[in-house]
Amino acid sequence: MAGPPYLGDEQIRRMLPMEHAVMALEAAFRAGPPGPDAPAARAGLGGGELVLSAGERGRWAAARLTAAPVSRLLPSPEPSDDPVSDAVFDAVSGPVSDPVSDAVFVVFDADELRPRLLLDARALAVLRAAAVSALATRHLAQADARRLVVLGTGADARAHVRAMLAVRQPDEVRVVGPDARRARRLAEELDAEHGAKVVPGDPDDVAEADIVCVCLPGPLFPGPAPGPGSHVNVIGGRTPEPGSPRPYVVGEHAGMPGCDTDLHHVLTGEGTPPPGAPTLFTSSGLIAEDLVLAAELAAKLG
Question: Which of 68, 75, 212, 293 has minimal Cβ neighbours within 10 Å of its Cβ?
C-alpha cells in the first residue's frame, strides 16, 4: 500500500498561491482565535534530539517532527539571516535559528489518525509566516501605503515581499540586509520576478517606510524606527524593546505577552487601533496556523 504523498517547497508554493493562503488564514482567524501550542515532547537520542509538536483543527490533526543533531544544537558562530525557514522549532518560543535543521509536518484524519500528507515543515512555516503578515497588513496598514522595506535576505524576506505585493501596491520595495551583496542580488531577483521596483536599501530607509517587514533576528530595527502611521510585521514573536517607541501591538493570539490585542479581534472590529497610531503585528508560528494551510493542501489532493 502506498504511503501518504510528500510535498516540498516548490510543490507547496505552486499548489497554494500566496493569495489563497491569505484567504484561508483570514477565514480561520475570523472564525476564532487560535490557542497557543501545547507543550512539545522531546526525545534525546545518541545523535541529538527529536522535538514533536502536535495540534488539531476540525477534521484534521497534525504533528511536526524536528530533528536536531548535536552539531546543530551548538551555538552558531554566525547568526542566521532567516529566523523561520532556517529553524529548529523550539517547544516554547517557536523557531530558533539553525540553517540546516530537518523538519516534517504530518497531516492526519483527526478521527482515525490516519496519515494523509507529509509536508516540508520549513517551507510551510515560511509560507504561513508571510501569509499571516499579509493578512495583518491588509487590515492594519494604510490603504495608500507606498513604501515597503523588508529587513532580511533569506527565504522569509523573499516570501514577505511576495506576500506584501498580494495585499498592497507599493511604488518601491527596499531590501535591507547585513550583507549588501545578498541584498542587491535578492532585490534584482525579486524585481525580475514580480515586475515591481525592488532595490537594495539601507537601515535608514525604515524611518520613511509605510510598511516594514522584520525578517532578521536580533534588535527589531538596526537603524531608526518607523515613523507615525507605519505598520510593521515581525516574525519570531518579538515585541518592541523597552524604551523604544511604542506602537499598537497585535499578536497572533490573546496569550501573547506585550500585545494590545490579537488578530482575531482586529478582524472582528473589536481590536481596532487608535486612529493614526503606528501598528506592529508579531507572529511566532502556531501549529494551528500551519494546519490551516496544510488542510488546504490536503483538500486539493482529495
Answer: 75
Q: What is the mean pLDDT of each run of 10 residues along the chain (302 residues)?
A: 89 97 97 84 86 89 86 50 43 35 89 94 96 98 96 96 96 95 96 92 96 93 92 93 86 88 96 94 92 94 85
Residue 293 CA to residue 235 CA, distance in Å, equals 18
Q: What's the pLDDT score for residue 87? A: 39
On whether the pTM is more than 0.85, the answer is yes
Strands 248-251 and 261-262: parallel
* Residues in CB range of 281: below 8 A, 6 or more apart: 133, 136, 137, 140, 231, 232, 233, 234, 249, 250, 251, 263
Sign, CA dihedral 186-190-193-197, equals negative
Whether the Cβ atoms of residue 133 and residue 141 lie closer than 8 Å to each other? no
Tell me the one-letter amino acid at 126: V
One-character DSSP codes across 205-221: GGGG-SEEEE-SSSSS-
Name the nearest CA neighbour of 128 among 295, 286, 300: 286
**Cell reading at 110:** 483527526
- Per-residue cell: 14: 505552486
How far is the C-alpha of 217 from the C-alpha of 129, rounded, in Å? 14
CA atoms within 13 A on the CB side of 32: 6
Alpha-carbon distance 86 to 125, whole Å?
10
Cα(138)–Cα(149) distance, integer angstroms: 16
Nearest to 95 by CA among 286, 292, 288: 286
Distance separating alpha carbons of residues 89 and 96, to the nearest angstrom: 6
Question: Is 119 exposed, middle or buried, given 0-12, 13-18 or 19+ CB atoms closer than 10 A?
Answer: buried
Distance CA 13, CA 143 (A): 27
Q: How many CB atoms lie within 10 A of CB 118?
A: 17
SS3 195: coil
